[in-house]
Design a protein that fits this description.
heterodimer, A: 132 residues, alpha+beta, Thiol Ester Dehydrase, Chain A, 6-stranded antiparallel sheet, 6 strands, elongated, B: 129 residues, 2 helices, globular
Chain lengths: 132, 129
């Protein structure tokens, strides 16, 4: 039974530099802040950071695993509040949780929380799905 | 500085963009999605951001893309995207403001398959001071 307050199981995804390179190639976003440490530091970042849209895509996968595939998402939004910092030769966590906040007929609204190294990286992250 | 008269303008993409299975496969592989009959929900960001860049960096608009960060993103999906789709895109500059020296631009992207609206998405892009 899905109702307001139903929690989705927590999922931890690991992000490394190889994933950033793969996402850059797949998305066309070759901004060097996501691949080149020297460049990232030169523009005031602590290190290479993940693409906000990669984080969002991974959270999207978390949602669609629960809701029944890529075709089940009607709305999906998030604010990029803090970067996911990805040092060389490390795997950093993206820890994702979700809670049902509204059930309206077959439409289900979910609030999502994503953290990395204990820091909340997305704000106002929400999806509306039709669960299959 | 963004040219003030550009707010509210809609720009049509020059050509329709055809979506290939290999593009969907590559995007899905990164996030561990194995069913690629439908594109992942955020897949079309590659089309929208590319169009935003083309428009917003035109000399008469004048945004500095090199100092740009992505502030937020929202999608409304009316019909899932699949390989073989041919999508026409238009982009609208919805608002522009300057806060603490940062330029904040809100843009909307509408993707159509023939006359059908497939996806609308909204991006807030911030050019850091």
């Amino acid at each position: 039974m899905i109702e307001v307050g139903t929690a989705l199981a927590e999922k931890i995804v690991y992000i490394d530099r190889a994933m950033l390179k793969a996402y850059a190639d797949a998305s066309g976003d070759q901004n060097p802040i996501h691949q080149n440490e020297e460049f990232a530091v030169s523009v005031g970042l602590p290190n290479v950071i993940a693409h906000g849209m990669l984080t969002m895509a991974l959270v999207g996968k978390y949602v669609t695993d629960w809701s029944g595939g890529s075709g089940s998402v009607k709305e999906f939004g998030a604010r990029f509040i803090k970067p996911v910092i990805v040092p060389a030769d490390e795997k950093v966590d993206l820890t994702i949780n979700g809670t049902v906040t509204e059930v309206d007929g077959d439409q289900i609204k979910i609030d999502l929380v994503a953290t990395s190294a204990g820091v909340k990286v997305l704000g106002m992250a929400k999806a509306v799905v039709i669960k299959k | 500085m963004l040219a003030p008269d550009s707010v509210g303008r809609t720009f049509a993409g020059a050509d329709a963009i055809s979506i290939s299975q290999s593009e969907i496969d590559a995007f899905a592989a990164v996030i561990g999605e194995t069913d690629t009959t439908i594109a992942p929900p955020t897949f079309t960001i590659r089309i929208s951001l590319d169009q935003f860049q083309n428009i917003l960096t035109k000399p008469e608009i004048g945004l500095d893309w090199s100092r740009l960060v992505h502030g937020d993103q929202k999608f409304e999906i009316f019909s899932p995207v699949k390989a073989g789709d041919c999508l026409r895109c238009s982009a609208t500059i919805e608002s522009y403001r300057v806060a603490a020296g940062n330029e904040i631009v809100s843009v909307r992207s509408d993707l159509h398959r023939d006359d059908q609206l497939v996806i609308s998405s909204w991006s807030t892009l911030v050019v850091r001071a």
